[in-house]
Amino acid sequence: xxxxxxxxxxxxxxxxxxxxxxxxxxxxxxxxxxxxxxxxxxxxxxxxxxxxxxxxxxxxxxxxxxxxxxxxxxxxxxxxxxxxxxxxxxxxxxxxxxxxxxxxxxxxxxxxxxxxxxxxxxxxxxxxxxxxxxxxxxxxxxxxxxxxxxxxxxxxxxxxxxxxxxxxxxxxxxxxxxxxxxxxxxxxxxxxxxxxxxxxxxxxxxxxxxxxxxxxxxxxxxxxxxxxxxxxxxxxxxxxxxxxxxxxxxxxxxx
Length: 255
Prior knowledge:
By secondary structure, the protein is an alpha/beta fold. The protein has one domain (12-243): 3-Layer(aba) Sandwich (Carbamate kinase). Helices cover 35% and strands 18% of the residues. It has 8 helices and 11 strands. Helix 1 (33-48) links the parallel strand 1 and strand 2 (52-57). It starts with 11 loop residues before the first strand and ends in a 12-residue tail after the last strand.
């Protein structure tokens, strides 16, 4: 008898990963090979059950534009371009790791660099997804002053994703900082308007506004939980979802 294939809740997703997720916090290595492999194994598992995956990776493990302008005396525009190039470095690492696992990948950059990546072209990206290829969106939006959260929100809206996954170090949204307060309460869901009203730090304001205007749900969850991406696409109770018309919500968010 043929084994029944799992049926995911979401067909097309955008997964937003922080560049810091790749860093080895013990020795400071920007890209830890074991962490990279673990993340790619989860992406492969989800791709294998037919989920169309767009992936956005930050560059903070290599260079963060805003910090560079504040602490290193680098012009903000220059710093942001350095940060965008860092996302390409991370994207190349993920692409290489996934390809070695047998996953077909396309790296698209918002900054033209045809020796390394395809240019971001929406129709081409959509076609890749329809053919089961993982698409990595690198180079930010191609413009300074925009975060990779905004890139993720923009690409999710453009490709018609069912949901935006934001993987963090914390397993959802809490009413207090769960790393400091033992009695912190995690919420299963929260509305866009409540999040805005209470000033929750889920994403930067530009990214969050894009999601709200396009009714793009956001699922915040921890990558540190085993098979977290698989659990999320299967609709299991994981993390906190931000969407319209929810009843459970808190006052603060710590990610």
